[in-house]
Amino acid sequence: MQGFKTFAHKTVLEFVQDAGGRRGVTAVVGPNGSGKSNIADALRWVMGEQSLKLLRGKKSEDVIFSGTDQRARSGFAEVTLLIENDDRAEVEFSQIVLTRRLYRDGQSEYEVNRQPARLQDVTLLLAQCGVGQRSYSVIGQGMIDHVLVASPAERKEFFDEAFGLRPFQLKRQSALQKIEGAKDNLAQTEAVLREIGPRLTGLERQVKRLQEREHLEQELHTLERSYYGHHWQEIMQGMDQARGRSERARAEQQAREAEAIAIEQALAQLEQATPVQAGFGALRKALDDLLEQRNALRERQLKLESNRAVAAARAEKPWAPLPLSKIIQTLSDLHAAHEELAELLAAKTMDLARVRAIGECLRVSSAELVGKLQRPAPEPEQESHPDPAWEQEAQKIVSTLADLLRQITEAEERLEDWNASEQGQRKHIFALQHQLNQKRQAAQIAERQAADTAVELARFETRRDTLMAEVQQYAPGLEAELSSRNTQHGTRSSELGAPDGKSTIPLPADAAARLQHLRSQVEWIGGIDPETVKEHQDTKERFDFLTKQTDDLRQTMATLEQVVTELNTTIRERSETAFRRLDREFGTYFKKLFQGGEACLVELEPEPETDEAEEPVETPTSAGPAGIEIQATPPGKRFKSIALLSGGERALTSIALICAIMATHPSPFVVLDEVDAALDESNSRKFADIITSLADKTQCVVITHNRATMTQAHVLYGVTMGDDGASQLLSVKLEDVEKIKQKKAG
Fold it and tell me: If you count DSSP H runs as helices and E runs as strands, how many of each does the chain have, helices first?
């Protein structure tokens, strides 16, 4: 001790075995007020006592030497307890060194084997050694009667510590605290899980939609390339074919016109070589003039129709319904052409070239009508009116053509009449004339085909512009790719969707509907922040971590509850065994001290906890009885209640109980602070004999004034107090005194 209460300077006490190898009895004696009891307080304080009342103080700094007029006060109090642990039954250390230090500023320190420690560590270590803070290890002044006046529950706690159940109770208490902590953590974790659970569900839906959007966009991009590539290639191939037909028609027209010119030159040469009668020349010249006028008018008529068709084709919108007015107008034109063809067929002199021209016109017009009905042109919002100048000129041409046809018919009739007479002579000329008409008719047909191909080419150009506008709106990434193939579609169009290089890119039948459906799906999903994926990943990791923590907490709670159950079983079994031995020893020592009588201990069963149905409920914290009652009957008396005992009887009963505990579950040491003060001389000798008999199991430190007790000690410590207010020690080994006496006697 150093600086503890009256022990201002460093003071060391050693409690050693006696000459016989027993733990022995050490007596501490001294006058009142010398500081003897401070030794017991120091032991109690170093073992972790927190009650200032038991330490006989009001505040923590009262345990520090307060100083006197002749000696300054100490700045700290320090007590070190060294315990020899030879058997190492519960603790692996051969020596246990406990130190507690308190400074005046309130700072407190604990050390175990010179290493910083907590109060909990010190308490558990002492419990494993069989030493308790408030058990019979240190019995102070006034505490000898406390066991008798204590409540049954407090008395049970005292006995549990004496039975060595304190380590198990501390472990059970620690396990229960961990269970409560685990419950709190579990509640907090489940609250967080309930909070982030809906958020995680929402994020999972968004991530799923984002993944679905990526899949849809990929499929949409692939389908757009295939769809637009297919139509682009189809348009480009159609334009190529239209250009080819137009070039062939122009070439055919030029060839037929060249042949007609050659025939005309041959006819001119024949006319120069063979004179023609004046009547034939006039008829022929008149007929030729009429035919030239008719041909010129018909060429003009064809050009007007071609220009009007081209203008209509450029103004039409693809993929729209064909207006009814257009169908009626086209059917009226076809009906008029049929009427004209019927008139020509009914005429006596039939113009074969005109019949063929009308037939070709009917074929082309009917085919065009069928094509438009299959892929009709749009009906304008308001009825479109042709150019009035074109209409007037067309009507004038029709009227003039009708008049010319009549004149030609008359001229041909006259020429036929003349030919009938001159047939033999002019067969060759007529043959050439017939060939000339055929060539000119073929040239006109080729010209009409060229005009039709121009209309078709204009229609393809319109489809191309519409397709490019749609690509620019929905798939701008393909615009440059398609534009770059405007002149190279014949060699590179397969890159858009025809990997095998076929002339037509394969396309599903429902491609347009599927394309619209994919666009609607992508638009419905809408835009999703890419950070959602990271947030979902973080939230998922946190959710999984908390879920695992929840499972671990539940597993920990189950394990701890199992530990508590096992500890309850251990505590109950050991308590029952120790209680029976204690009850037996208590009766023995009571009879020894009282020279008769009876004494026993009675367990009080706890009241069972009940639920709403009033059925007992087992709890993991229940272990053993609720309390212990003491019954004592001295010889010659009949009562059993300890409340009716006299002061001396109560003291003897308490001593009998303490001795029974020491015999049942010996503690490494016991400090008895003037517990024999109330005993008379006869009972003091009995007490001294009992202490001596227990000294082989327990090291006894007795603070006493009793001579009988002193005679049983093998070491005496005398405590005195000097003028400076500090306690001092004097020590004597009685064995050495006996040896000196024997030596002098010898």
Answer: 17, 14
What does the radius of gyration of the chain's CA atoms come to, in whole angstroms? 65
- Distance from C-alpha of 25 to C-alpha of 684, rounded to nearest angstrom: 15
734, 729, 736: which is closest to 11 by C-alpha? Answer: 729
- Distances, alpha carbon 404 to alpha carbons 393, 409, 563, in Å: 16, 8, 126
Percent of residues in the chain assigned helix, strand, coil, to nearest 5:
65, 10, 25
691 in a domain, yes or no? yes
Residue 510 banded pLDDT, cuts 50, 70, 90: low
Contacts of 565 (CB under 8 A, 6+ apart): 620
Angle between helices 388-474 and 278-315 (to 10 degrees): 30
Most distant pair of Cα atoms in the chain: their distance: 204
What's the pLDDT tens digit per position in 673-686? 888 887 888 888 88
Residue 13 scores a pLDDT above 60: yes
pLDDT in tens, 73-98: 899 999 999 988 776 556 778 888 99
pLDDT digits (tens, 9 = 90+) for 115-161: 999 988 888 888 777 776 555 678 776 666 777 777 888 777 777 77
The number of CA neighbours under 13 Å toward the Cβ of 173 is 9
Q: How far is CA 530 from the centre of its chain?
A: 16
Amino acid identity at 709: T
pLDDT in tens, 513-546: 666 666 666 665 665 566 766 777 787 788 888 8
Domain that holds residue 330: 321-376
Residue with tokens 């969707």: 497
The span from the CA of 468 to the CA of 664, in Å, is: 106
601 pLDDT band, cuts 50/70/90, is confident
Residue 607 — very low, low, confident or very high, per pLDDT cuts 50/70/90?
low
d(CA 423, CA 417): 10
Rounded to the nearest 5 degrees, what angle is found at the Cα of 196, between the Cα atoms of 192 and 197?
A: 110
Name the token pair of 688.
């001294």
For residue 275, being part of any structural domain is answered with: no
Q: What's the confidence (pLDDT) of residue 621?
A: 44
Domains in the chain, number: 2
What's the token pair of residue 392?
Answer: 């007037």
Q: Are 699 and 719 in contact (CB under 8 A)?
A: no
Q: What are phi and psi for residue 571, nearest 5 degrees? A: -60, -45
Helix (H) or strand (E) segment spanning residue 700: strand 699-703
Rounded distance between C-alpha atoms, residue 220 and residue 230, angstroms: 15
Q: Give the contacts of 228 (CB within 8 A, at least 6 positions apart).
A: 467, 470, 471, 475, 478, 482, 496
33 within domain boundaries: yes
Quote the Cα angle for 455-459-463, to 5°.
Answer: 170
Quick check: 251 pLDDT over 60? yes
Q: Which bin fits 331, alpha (ψ -120 to 50), beta or left (φ > 0)? A: alpha
Q: What would the two tokens of residue 509 be?
A: 């039948």
Confidence of residue 282 (pLDDT cuts 50, 70, 90): confident
Evaluate whether residue 723 is within a structural domain: yes
CATH number at residue 17: 3.40.50.300
Q: Name the phi and psi angles at 593, rounded to 5.
A: -75, -35
